[in-house]
Amino acid sequence: MSIRIVTDSTCDLPAETISKHGIGVVPVYIHSGNEEYRDGVDITRAEFYKRLPSFTVHPTTAVPAAAKFKDAYEQMAREGASEILSVHISSALSAVVQVAQTAAAETKSVRVTVLDSHQLSMGMGFLVERAASLAAQGLSMKDIGIELNEQILRSHVFAALDTLEFLRRSGRMNNIIAGIGTLIQLKPILTMYNGKPGAERVRTREGAIKRLIQMLESLGELERVAIVHTHAAERVVELKERTSHLLAGLEVLAMDITPVIGAHIGPDAVGFAALAKRRTS
């Protein structure tokens, strides 16, 4: 029995992790006017964030056609997969899960199970990596699903935006910050937990950083953590230094958030994807 893992490009996993586990990645699309880019294929994240403030037409994102997912599934079947687990960005944020489910139903060469991660960025990335590790250990699809659903309940993503401007331009995520106001000085914190996006109102950059630290501390002992950001290297260094007492002994990844999300939240956002340790009774 060989279970293989497929995900989409919003998982933000390092390339070496994807290669190590043989994870299939279906890129989501980014559009600006007549230009089309495959996330992580046709444009680097550094280039995207450098261009983001000056795109003539603000970038939008699009889910790949079901045929793209079906191609990925069938390629893995040809490589010997007996089953496939396809893990994707929260259905609260994107239609990727629904399209993957359509592709799974159309795939006859191998059985495909689609899982809504209820997360984004490295919150999903940690889940995908765990799925690949469990598959490598020989666990059944049922047992992998049990482990992943338990991990979802310990997964948290929260990030402080530097500006509301890109949310205003995109129009795609305005419902998440409904009622938060549009005062220029606001530095909202967006949160994601178990498929439920949320927002908090913070008035200054310093206040936002302090709140991020409080939120991380409130999770207790951590199993995994990553600093997620939109091409904000200086803010990553600051945040890592100010949370060093909470991150001792942990490998801390720093990952650029996929442009699929970055197009909506803008540059200089920073925050955490954190997996709380399993609590024993």
Q: What keywords describe this structure?
A:
6-stranded mixed β-sheet, 281 residues, Rossmann fold, 2 domains, alpha/beta, 13 strands, Hypothetical Protein Tm841, Chain: A,domain 3, 11 helices
Architecture overview:
Helices cover about 40% and strands about 25% of the residues. It has about 280 residues and is α/β, with parallel strands linked by helices. The chain has two domains: about 5-30 and about 65-150, Rossmann fold (3-Layer(aba) Sandwich), CATH 3.40.50.10170; about 155-275, Hypothetical Protein Tm841, Chain: A,domain 3 (2-Layer Sandwich). The strands form three sheets. The protein has a six-stranded mixed β-sheet, with helices on both faces. Strands 2-1-6-7 form a four-stranded parallel β-sheet, with helices on both faces. A three-stranded antiparallel β-sheet has the order 4-3-5, with helices on one face. Helix 3 packs across helix 4 and helix 5 (about 120-135) packs antiparallel against helix 6 (about 140-150). The radius of gyration is 18 Å and the shape is globular. The two termini are about 35 Å apart.
